Amino acid sequence: MKKLSFLLLLSVVLTQVSCISSKKYYYLQGEYDMKNSSANYEPIIQKDDRISIMVTSVQKEMAEPFNMSNFNNSNTNNINIGYLVDSNGNIDFPVLGKISVAGYTVEQLKLMLKDKLSNYLNDAVINVRILNFKVTVLGAVSNPGVKNFETNRVTLLDALGEAGDLTVFGKRENILIIRDYQGVKSFHRVDISDANFVNSPFYYLDQNDMIYVQERKAKVDATSFPSLPLIVSILSLVTTVLILINR
């Protein structure tokens, strides 16, 4: 009877340990605020960025002078297309000349260009995109390296997904984001196991962000975790059999 009680107690303890340990491996736990303060986030254009600007109009020939000719060449290498933002934050735009663009969001630049082009085009439609949107993911992930994105709205989860997700050794509650804005680096730590992470200013990434996933010190805990459910199942089965035998 004592052995039976011991096995039953051990089974309960291991079940609790398994549940507690598994929480380390989940994303976005708990309740979260639906306001999602980061929903309207837009990356800011910076020096050394390469941006695409396309101007269209009902009168196609009127819009052509405001577009770079190499955008129409499908054989052009992506690295050579678009406007390079110089060290002063300017680009050389056809007809308009030098324009300061650093510090603008994509939407703000669209509005500014539409205003400047209003003397030439009444119905201008402007499309702006950052071409060099890339981030670097390092540390305890399956596929570390530089990740390039076509979209300019990239979340930390997008980047981790491109990196093949965290390994079992990755610390989900302590991910470091290194952000470089106008030559000034800042360091931020985020906890993606907390559901309210979606409201963090670092839910969306900036171009050239660096993400470092720290590795857990106690690898034994991580490697033993997958076997806990099996151990619990076996003990539960043994306990059930012993209860039936002792009836």
Automatic annotation (TrEMBL):
Domain of life of the native organism: Bacteria
Keyword entries, A-Z: Cell outer membrane, Ion transport, Lipoprotein, Membrane, Palmitate, Polysaccharide transport, Porin, Signal, Sugar transport, Transmembrane, Transmembrane beta strand, Transmembrane helix, Transport
GO-annotated molecular function: polysaccharide transmembrane transporter activity; porin activity
Principal cellular location given in the protein's record: membrane
Keyword Transmembrane: yes
GO biological process, one term: monoatomic ion transport
Domain Polysaccharide export protein N-terminal positions: 39-130
Compartments, as annotated in UniProt: Cell outer membrane
Keyword Disulfide bond: no
Residue span(s) of domain SLBB: 134-213
Topology versus the membrane: Multi-pass membrane protein
GO terms under cellular component: cell outer membrane; pore complex
Protein name: Polysaccharide export protein
Native source species: Flavobacterium stagni
Organism lineage: Bacteria, Pseudomonadati, Bacteroidota, Flavobacteriia, Flavobacteriales
